[in-house]
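Repro:
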Amino acid sequence: MHAIDLFLIAIYFIAIISIGFSRKSVSNQFNSKDYLLAGRKLSLPGFVVTLVSTWYGGILGIGENTYLYGLQTWVIFGLPYYLFALIFAFFVAGRINRLKSISLPDQFYQRYGKVAGIISAIYIFILSSPAPYILSIGILLNQITGFSYELSLLIVTLVCFSYIWNGGLKAVIRTDVLQFAMMFLGFGLLLFYSMSHTGFAIDINNTLPKNYFNPTGGASIQYILAWFFIALWTFVDPGFYQRCAAAKSPLTARNGIIISIGFWFIFDILTLLSGIYARLLISNVEPVLAYTKLAELVLPPFALGMFFIAILSVIMSTIDSFAFISATTFGRDILWRIQSGTENNHPLNENDVIPLVKRGLLVTGLISLMLAISIPSVVQIWYTLGSIIVPGLLIPFLLSFTKKKIDVITLMVAPLIISILWILNKNIFGSYPLHMEPFYPGILTSTIICLVKWLKK
């Protein structure tokens, strides 16, 4: 890379650290509400910026899938999430804000008791692991700097975790403002220069694969529908829950999600078109590097640096958000609940919670670094975790807003076991039982158990 580009990237890291450690980003260490939820004063602009920027951590996985399968990427990673986010905005977001819970496991504790709360916390801890995104950043920094993959992982982890440790959610939100601006600017530059590189006129019919603009990308309808159902993840997404709980009003939470959908659509178009140009202009590239190799081909110095900052912004904004959620889940919703022995409605001791969250941050960092070294594919991790965890969380979470009293332990554990057995069967015998994707038996098990328990009541 040109010295100008490296200089810009260095400035970006300095800016992120400065913002993360600024006085306005620092929370009172003895005020858990301030540290964990930014004082529940999150404004509409702040809500939109932090929700949009933290949604695309697996951007290299998006590039990989777009390079290989074209329009399918938007069909499975865009369209269903708009739909379920819209439903979430109108029917769930305001309720979360009015409950005044700290986290999704907190709601399970209050509604179903300690055991269900701990099980949900374990699930959320797994779902919110920043490991797939640390994997992406390791690949990227290795390409930019030539540092070893392991050293690249360590550098970004230390940077992101340091300002979270210091400022909590406030620091996450304030750094998201810069990262939000950079992600749109960087991909806007990439698309413009890609179009300019081809003279704004291309023949797509003779240069792209046959199924490239097929909504399924050549995959089975069952596979596509499985991704649609996995998009129900939105309802149990800990980032959504945290932002809605931190919003200053139910209206802010609802409107913030609706506006965010618009920004997601714009960014999805930028990434989709950029991935198409990568397939048009570059052959025999490792798909996960599609965006970065396209940038190296078409961008001049300075613009190239701005694009790599955009990629860094997209991934780092998700790393710090998920790391903080994971640390809060481990420290508050698991360690504190086990160690304190208090009743569900007992006020939290703020002096105990924050040190445990910081301990959770250390555990999250160590586990994520170990996982990032062994994870082969970001997209596969999304699919596997979604297929296993979401069926065990979705229906119990939706039931928590009703007055129906149902024992949800079986409802949470049985779908997880069924989905895992489904995946193990494929690993052993080479195919899923009944040729059914693992999400379906999991959610079907959850639905049947729910109906049986509901009718018994």
